[in-house]
Each structure stands twice: as structure tokens, then as C-alpha cells.
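Write out the 3D structure for:
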Amino acid sequence: VKDIPTFEEVAQQVHIDRLPTWKNAKHGQQWINTLRDYAFPKIGRLPVSAVGQPEVLSCLSPIWTDKPETARRLMQRIRVVLDVARSRGFREGENPVSAIKAANVLPKVRKKVKHHRAMDWRDVPAFYADLRERSAMAAKALMFTCLTGSRTGEVLGARWEELDFNERLW
């Protein structure tokens, strides 16, 4: 009979195992901090095999409508920890996170649209001049966005094959 580790022990191990794969140190820290703040106080000490839908909901429900983005990330991270635990033989059956999602147990949350104020037109020349001094690709993309009046997503998703330099067309 295997000793069943706690949810927190498995989560800490998953975090360590994945350290080399994070985009940067901050991202890796955010991953474990979300679990530390919202999951460990409620389910951290439970054997990972004892974490079911009620336990997962106890972590998600308090923040689901107030902090939907954090709750969504928490849900993904709990799912990963439980999947790893299952793959290591510490739990059986369906991942409770999958069951919660499939059953639509949590209410639909509409994202609040955040509008940004436009820059005063008188500030644009100085802003553009500042961008021109920067070598970062993001600055060049923003200059391109300004010059074309395109949406950010269109610029970021642009492909070289879409550009016709002879005809000067995108």
C-alpha cells in the first residue's frame, strides 16, 4: 500500500518538476501562489486521493464571480495536480475538475469589458518619437498599429505572406 501524499505535497512536486518549463520565474511563482492562496488552506492537507468535487468547489466557489480569471487559473492548476496524482497511482477515477466543468455546476461569468481612454491627440507625436527610439519588437508593432489604424490582434497575428512589398499592401 502506497502512502498517499497530500494535495499540497503533490502540487509542490508538480511545481518543482515544471520549473524548467515556465516562460519565466514570475510565471512559475504565480502558478504555485494561486494554489497556496486559494487551494492549500482548504484542501492542502487532505490526501490527494480524498479530493473530490465538493473539495474542489470549496476552493473555487468563493472567488468564482469576484475573480473569474484567478478562479479559472486555479481550476486548471488543481486539474493538473490531480491528473499528475492519478498518473502516479495516488488516485483513481475521473478528475473532479472535469466533472464540475461538464456539469456546469458553477455559474456562467461574463467578462467585464475594460475600456481604455484614448491618448490625447496632442501627446501622440511625443509618444511615437519615444517608440521610434526603442528597438524592441513590441515597440515596432505598436508603431505599425498606429500607422495602419489596425487592431492590436491583427498586427500581432500578421504573417509575412500577407504583405506585398511591391504593391505596398497588407
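The chain has a mean pLDDT of 92.
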